[in-house]
Write a structure and sequence with these properties.
It is built from eight helices and seven strands. It has 231 residues and is α+β, with helices and mostly antiparallel strands. The protein has a seven-stranded antiparallel sheet, with helices on both faces. It has a single domain, classed as Class II aldolase/adducin N-terminal domain (L-fuculose-1-phosphate Aldolase, 3-Layer(aba) Sandwich), CATH 3.40.225.10.
Length: 231
């Protein structure tokens, strides 16, 4: 992949967040990585989405050194880089402050898998990180946010659970590409809203069974998937 193509993919992922109403103001960002080159493209910090162009995206290496670009990269860059290092199978990361998913993060509540809409994309409850310690917040906050996420996923496959709620903060999602990461952010917001509605109707609602959850997840993902058309 050329850097031009990577920039184009990441620009579209960022604009998709806007089209789906997942960002407010300049909150949120999406990035993508070229694993062969070891380079990441990410939205610049504080730039209005309405003015964002492919050439504005900042290219860095995995240590955060700017390789191309005149603007300052997103303040969340170090979180994205920590996730790329921790999850070698991913190709894109998205971060939003979408309303319902962020509310769950602020409540420090996992989003239960109440139905098959959820299970089509996420194989279980959406996990919440532990609260970050004062020293983690005071020094290298953004990097430590990524490390906090990675610790939460010590026993979770990030490819079957491409989302997390950072306690007191907001969601991060990822996927095989920037487009996948952005799409997962959209689906996460939808299932966060559905879960809120579900417990509003019945506070004692239960998650679906593991067998129903796995049936819906595995028919769309993995080697035995049969949903959609052959690639």
């Amino acid at each position: 992949m050329t850097l031009e193509a990577l920039r184009a993919e990441v620009l579209e992922a960022n604009l998709s967040l806007v089209r789906h109403g997942l960002v407010v103001g300049t909150f949120g960002n999406a990035s993508g990585i070229d694993r062969d080159l070891g380079l990441v493209a990410i939205k610049p910090s504080g730039v209005d989405y309405n003015a964002l162009q492919a050439g504005d995206l900042v290219i860095t290496d995995l240590d955060g050194r700017v390789v191309e670009g005149e603007l300052r990269p997103s303040s969340d860059l170090a979180t994205h880089l920590a996730l790329y290092k921790a999850f070698p199978g991913i190709g894109g990361v998205a971060h939003t402050h979408s309303r319902h998913a962020t509310a769950w993060a602020q409540a420090r509540r996992e989003i239960p898998c109440f139905g098959t809409t959820h299970a089509d994309y996420f194989r279980g409850a959406i996990p919440v990180t532990a609260d970050m310690q004062d020293e983690e917040i005071a020094t290298d906050y953004e990097k430590n946010t990524g490390l906090c996420i990675a610790r939460r996923f010590a026993q979770i496959d990030p490819m079957t659970m491409p989302a997390v709620l950072v306690a007191g903060h907001a969601p991060f999602t990822w996927g095989g590409s920037p487009a996948d990461a952005s799409h997962n952010a959209f689906v996460l917001e939808e299932i966060a809203h559905l879960a809120f509605m579900t417990i509003s109707i019945d506070s004692r609602a239960n998650s679906i069974t593991d067998s129903l959850r796995d049936k819906h997840f595995l028919r769309k993902h993995g080697s035995t998937a049969y949903y959609g058309q052959p690639k």
